[in-house]
Every structure is written in structure tokens, then in C-alpha cells.
């Protein structure tokens, strides 16, 4: 579990980001007050900091400076302040990335993992040494099972990719449609999604009737485990 400390006084945004990141095995603890956050960093271990710049009682740039001086933790600045000077100053102080608001939570998740791989080489090695049955290559639009390429249609690739990225978490039908560039209401109304899921099972399971990887969670959706 990746542990993130977020210093953000917009509680609604903090809750949205926390819920989104949770599905990727990222646990977020939010601190509305920067002084409380700095105190907590002395007592708890976090893998990364997400820091807003406009905070009550203390400017975010000052918080960034103190974190860099006292702790060895990577920092992503998440701010609505558009002044390029703030961005330059934050990076000069030692922040690892600067993400201007508003942004897609998916971009935040990718940046978190990218920074952690760069910051923690041992984590990168652990990830590389873990042998997965299924390997997703989004750039090439390919999925391998035990080193062998799966022959998938565009819709099958899209859905199986989503399952792999959210391994271990329940993915609802609504999640699939919301994250799909191919599927639309026609698929939902005609029941074609169930047909695609069945085709995927026939391509990845030894026994599609007793799946080892792609499980149906009654009334909730699907869970992919490898």
C-alpha cells in the first residue's frame, strides 16, 4: 500500500482524490492545516506528499521548503495558482513535480507512480522482479499471458486493460462504460458487455465456467485477480 500525505484545505477535492486513488492501492491522509501536517510527518512514514500552495496560516511554498529541509519525501505541488514564478520557485526549493489545477485524477495517479519509481529504486526493482501472468503494454495496445500475445478485439483489449490496471478491486459496469472510448449505450442495452466478458474469459481462462482470473461479483461487477 502506497501511503500519501495530502496537504489540502479544499476538503471536497481531497475526498474526491482520496476515493479515486484508493482503487489503485494508494492510501491518502489529508491535512487541512499545514502545521498539523508537518507535525504528523515526524510521527508517521509517508511515501509522497501532495501539497497545495494556498493554505491557512502558512504559505505552501514555505511548507515545501520546510519539508525539503527536514524530510526525505518526494513532493507533488497541486495548485490553482497560475503564476509561473510559483512553479519555478517550488521546483527550485526541491518539489519533484508541479500539477496545476484543475487536472484529471488519472494524471495524478500516473505522476505519483512515476515519481516513486524514480525516487525509490528498490521499489522499482521489486516491481520489475514480480512476475505477473498478464502484462499490459498500453503503448503497443498489447496484452501478454505468460509471455504469449492474446488476440483481442479493440473492445476486449480496452476492458481487459481496465481490469489489469485495477487488479484486486471491484470494477462495476458503470466503471467500464465511464472509462471506455469504444463502448456506448448500445452495448449496455443489448447486453453485449456480458458477451465481451464471456469472450475474454474464453481467451484467458483454462476453464471459463470456473474462472481463476476474472470473477463476477454478484450485484457489484467484476474483480480481476492474478
From TrEMBL:
InterPro entries associated with the record: CheY-like_superfamily (IPR011006), OmpR/PhoB-type_DNA-bd (IPR001867), Sig_transdc_resp-reg_C-effctor (IPR016032), Sig_transdc_resp-reg_receiver (IPR001789), WalR-like (IPR039420), WH-like_DNA-bd_sf (IPR036388)
DNA-binding region: 125-226
Molecular function terms from GO: phosphorelay response regulator activity; transcription cis-regulatory region binding
Response regulatory domain location: 3-116
GO cellular component, one term: cytosol
Gene Ontology biological-process annotations: regulation of DNA-templated transcription
PROSITE patterns in UniProt: OMPR_PHOB, RESPONSE_REGULATORY
Protein keywords: DNA-binding, Phosphoprotein, Transcription, Transcription regulation, Two-component regulatory system
4-aspartylphosphate PTM sites in chain numbering: 52
Coiled coil: none
A Pfam family that the UniProt record links to this protein: Trans_reg_C
Domain of life the protein comes from: Bacteria
Protein name: Response regulator transcription factor
Organism, scientific name: Aliarcobacter cibarius
Taxonomic path: Bacteria, Pseudomonadati, Campylobacterota, Epsilonproteobacteria, Campylobacterales
